[in-house]
């Protein structure tokens, strides 16, 4: 993603190539697709698999616990996260995202997404964005 960047306002974040759009309580990802089998969630075209204790992205790992996710190489952290899968929705509580030196924080009592509306930020974490622009 040589032209990757984040553009943001109070209601919307778009990530080029992956087209992540945040609108009030939902994060919509148009390219990636989520599937669920037992306790595993898989994103096609993003090479993410999630089980009860670990998220793996290519050769790197995100440490998962009941309270936080830490992505060390790109410095993305979710604090106070509580992500659960129930029926066809993903629900999570208040979370905080830190990307490099720029910080984006979202607060909400409950955010949900259907299987086609991935309720997590999906991006190419092996490369930092060349431009971060927050409006």
From TrEMBL:
It comes from the Eukaryota. This is Uncharacterized protein. It comes from Potamilus streckersoni. The lineage of its organism: Eukaryota, Metazoa, Spiralia, Lophotrochozoa, Mollusca.
């Amino acid at each position: 993603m040589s032209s990757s960047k984040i553009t943001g306002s109070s209601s919307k974040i778009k990530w080029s190539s992956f087209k992540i759009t945040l609108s009030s309580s939902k994060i919509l990802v148009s390219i990636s697709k989520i599937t669920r089998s037992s306790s595993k969630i898989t994103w096609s075209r993003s090479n993410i698999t999630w089980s009860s204790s670990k998220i793996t992205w290519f050769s790197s790992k995100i440490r998962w616990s009941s309270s936080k996710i830490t992505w060390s190489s790109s410095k993305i952290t979710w604090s106070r996260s509580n992500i659960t899968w129930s029926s066809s929705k993903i629900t999570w509580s208040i979370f905080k995202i830190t990307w490099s030196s720029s910080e984006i924080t979202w607060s909400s009592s409950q955010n949900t997404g259907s299987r086609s509306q991935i309720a997590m930020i999906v991006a190419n974490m092996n490369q930092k964005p060349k431009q971060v622009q927050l409006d």
